[in-house]
Automatic annotation (TrEMBL):
<dbReference type="GO" id="GO:0042542">
    <property type="term" value="P:response to hydrogen peroxide"/>
</dbReference>
<keyword id="KW-0575">Peroxidase</keyword>
<feature type="active site">
    <location>
        <position position="126"/>
    </location>
</feature>
<dbReference type="InterPro" id="IPR024708">
    <property type="entry name" value="Catalase_AS"/>
</dbReference>
<feature type="compositionally biased region" description="Polar residues">
    <location>
        <begin position="386"/>
        <end position="403"/>
    </location>
</feature>
<dbReference type="InterPro" id="IPR011614">
    <property type="entry name" value="Catalase_core"/>
</dbReference>
<dbReference type="GO" id="GO:0046872">
    <property type="term" value="F:metal ion binding"/>
</dbReference>
<dbReference type="InterPro" id="IPR018028">
    <property type="entry name" value="Catalase"/>
</dbReference>
<dbReference type="GO" id="GO:0004096">
    <property type="term" value="F:catalase activity"/>
</dbReference>
<dbReference type="InterPro" id="IPR020835">
    <property type="entry name" value="Catalase_sf"/>
</dbReference>
<dbReference type="InterPro" id="IPR002226">
    <property type="entry name" value="Catalase_haem_BS"/>
</dbReference>
<feature type="binding site" description="axial binding residue">
    <location>
        <position position="336"/>
    </location>
    <ligand>
        <name>heme</name>
    </ligand>
</feature>
<dbReference type="Pfam" id="PF06628">
    <property type="entry name" value="Catalase-rel"/>
</dbReference>
<dbReference type="InterPro" id="IPR010582">
    <property type="entry name" value="Catalase_immune_responsive"/>
</dbReference>
<keyword id="KW-0376">Hydrogen peroxide</keyword>
<dbReference type="GO" id="GO:0020037">
    <property type="term" value="F:heme binding"/>
</dbReference>
<comment type="similarity">
    <text>Belongs to the catalase family.</text>
</comment>
């Protein structure tokens, strides 16, 4: 039986094809509320796109734990072999607009949400274990160099390389981005990383530092520059199409979830800063420990509702998982949730994809845009079911849970703006370069030269000196590639 057509208030619609007018040829009437509702809603069918990670794809699935981590954390989803937790994963490209091509040379976002019994735990990472910066105060400036020039409205190689030439901390990530792993063939055929250092704590109050790694079980596959250029012209949504089709066909992609764990005391004496996002922890010092499998097995029913309005944030932490002194992470703890409040609304966590699926929210936040949307998993709007909207109180409002408090973290040093250029920005970039074979190195040289060659000579010279600091052969190869342009 066909259901009746109604307006948003549920009133049945008699005619949805003709506006109310003063005569057959006359002007339209302001009282045509149906026309006004349709046009007003249409004008608002797009929310502001993300400043970064605007083009994305997402899917649901499960995380199955195969190694108990109770020695390291009280986090519910890391307790008990065989424990399964619902997940949502959003993939994305970083720099392009929402209509950009999936095959751009760009880092890929890899953002995982665990719907745990103690709230949502988000790991908002990338397909690279490092990043271009180690301090969030530089992030807006960096992203400006990746976006369009405000005068020409075109991508700006001069700005990009100018910024990088003055921030050698970016060299490790540049080397990854410009390597043959810079353009993943699909979202299924790439690794994911939490990238940041996070903390875990156990029932004894012991803290450990942790890095998360998601290793694809489909194998690593990448595109050359030539392959990517062809795909961008044929199907700019190829990665979205591949992910959706594979899940629809029952070919569920999987990733092996691994962690590196460092005892808290090790951080003080380790030879690199373990909270520096431009660095990796060598596996020989802190080996990967496989703890489970992440599988994607369900596509969203509505892209806008469940992917475009998905609001992941690294500040979504749960008992047993915390932050670290990683300066980029510290900045992102504020920036991501604040971006979601601006982009979607103050109550974005009431939307089904964002509300906790496995734990009922109870808090004292009230009102604001979208208040009362309600989480369908719990049958009410987010917050307490009572009328109490303050704490503490004597009215049986939600009570604090001191048993899940994070243990104290020792901090030392005078408050100041510390110069971080004392860090070694070249060693790990050089190590990565020397791991590449000759063919991979040549592809790296050619890819760098394709955009660096568009920058001014003084910037090219600055970058060549940075490459030289990493490895003399690195600089020589890029120089030769530049001369052949």
């Amino acid at each position: 039986m066909t259901e009746r057509l109604t307006a948003q208030n549920g009133a049945p619609i008699a005619d949805d094809q003709n506006s109310l007018s003063a005569g057959a040829r006359g002007g339209l009437m302001l009282q045509d509320w149906q026309l006004i509702e349709k046009l007003a809603h249409f004008n608002r069918e797009r929310i502001p796109e993300r400043v970064v990670h605007a083009k994305g794809s997402g899917a649901y699935g499960t995380f199955t734990l195969n190694k108990d981590l109770s020695d390291y954390t009280i986090a519910d989803h890391f307790q008990g072999v065989g424990k399964q937790t619902e997940v949502f994963l959003r993939f994305s490209t970083v720099g392009g607009e929402s209509g950009s091509a999936d095959a751009e040379r760009d880092p890929r976002g890899f953002a995982v949400r665990f719907y745990t019994a103690n709230g949502n735990h988000d790991i908002v990472g990338n397909n690279t274990p490092t990043f271009f910066l180690r301090d969030g105060i530089k992030f807006p400036d960096f992203i400006h160099t990746q976006k369009r020039n405000p005068k020409t409205n075109m991508k700006d190689a001069q700005a990009m390389w100018d910024f990088w030439s003055l921030n050698p901390e970016a060299l490790h990530q540049i080397t990854i981005l410009m390597s043959d792993r810079g353009i993943p063939a699909t979202y299924r055929h790439m690794n994911g990383y939490g990238s940041h250092t996070f903390s875990l704590w156990n029932a004894k109050g012991e803290r450990f530092w942790v890095k998360f790694h998601f290793k694809t079980k489909q194998g690593i596959k990448n595109l050359s520059n030539e392959q990517a250029d062809k795909i961008k012209g044929i199907d700019p949504d190829h990665a979205q199409r591949d992910l959706f089709a594979s899940i629809e066909d029952g070919d569920f992609p999987q990733w092996a979830v691994n962690v590196q764990i460092m005892p808290e005391a090790d951080a003080e004496r380790y030879h690199i800063n373990p909270f520096d996002l431009t660095k990796v922890w060598p596996h020989k010092d802190y080996p990967l420990i496989e703890i489970g499998t992440l599988e994607l097995n369900r596509n969203p029913e509505n892209y806008f509702n469940e992917v475009e309005q998905a609001a992941l944030a690294p500040s979504n932490l749960v008992p047993g998982v915390g932050a670290s002194p990683d300066k980029m992470l510290q900045a992102r703890l504020f920036a991501y949730a604040d971006a979601q409040r601006y982009r979607i609304g103050a109550n974005y966590n009431q939307l089904p994809v964002n509300c906790p699926h496995a734990s009922k929210p109870n808090h004292y936040q009230r009102a604001g845009a979208m208040a009362g949307v309600g989480c369908p998993f719990h049958g009410s709007a987010a917050g307490s079911d009572s009328s109490v909207n303050y704490g503490p109180n004597t009215q049986q409002g939600p009570a604090q849970q001191p048993q899940v408090a994070e243990p104290p973290m020792d901090l030392a040093g005078a408050m100041d703006r510390y110069d971080k250029t004392v860090e070694d920005d070249y060693a790990q970039a050089g190590d990565l370069f020397r791991l590449m074979n000759g063919e991979q190195q040549q592809a790296l040289f050619d890819t760098i030269a394709s955009t660096l060659g568009q920058a001014s000579m003084d910037i090219q010279e600055k970058m060549l000196e940075h490459f030289r600091q990493a490895d003399v052969a690195y600089a020589a190869g890029v120089k030769a590639a530049l001369e052949q342009r």
